[in-house]
Design goal:
Elements: H1 9-17, E1 26-29, E2 37-40, H2 48-58, E3 66-69, H3 81-98, E4 100-103, H4 110-125
Parallel strand pairs: 3-4
Antiparallel strand pairs: 1-2
Helix pairs in contact: 3-4
C-alpha cells in the first residue's frame, strides 16, 4: 500500500477535496453607489448547458452575440497606460457592438480590475449602456 501510485493526482485531489454542489448560490454584490456585479458559484464538473441557460434566463432570454472570457494576469500584471487604454477600448467596443458577455475572475486586481474599471467608465460615458 505504501508504494501505491496515484495515476492522476489532480483528479484524485479533486475527488478527495471537493464536492458537487447545486447551482443555488448566485446574485449581485453591491457597494455604495454601485449597480452591482453579478456572481455565481458553480461546480467545476457541471455541464455547461445548465449554466448557459441560467445566464440566458438572467439576461431576459437574450443570448449573447459574443462571449469574452478574460482570465489571467492577476499577479505581475504591468503595462503602459496607453496600452491599457487601447486594450480596454478594444474590449469595450467589441462587447458593446456585439451584445457580448464579459466573464472575468471578479477579483479586484490585474486584468480583472482593468476590465472592471473599463466597464465602469463605459457606463459613465454612455446614456443607455448595455
Amino acid at each position: 500500500k505504501d508504494n501505491a501510485k496515484i495515476t492522476d493526482p489532480p483528479k484524485e485531489f479533486k475527488r478527495i477535496h471537493s464536492s458537487t454542489v447545486p447551482v443555488t448560490v448566485y446574485g449581485a454584490l453591491k457597494s455604495n453607489g454601485s449597480i452591482g456585479c453579478k456572481y455565481i458559484r458553480i461546480d467545476h464538473q457541471l455541464p455547461m448547458a445548465p449554466i448557459y441557460e441560467l445566464l440566458v434566463n438572467d439576461c431576459g432570454d437574450t443570448k449573447p452575440g459574443l462571449i469574452l472570457s478574460i482570465y489571467g494576469g492577476a499577479k505581475y500584471f504591468t503595462m503602459t497606460e496607453k496600452l491599457e487604454k487601447e486594450i480596454i477600448r478594444g474590449i469595450i467596443d467589441a462587447a458593446a457592438t456585439s451584445n457580448a458577455w464579459i466573464l472575468t475572475t471578479g477579483v479586484n486586481n490585474g486584468v480583472s480590475k482593468l476590465i472592471g474599471e473599463g466597464i465602469s467608465h463605459y457606463r459613465l460615458l454612455k446614456p443607455n449602456p448595455n
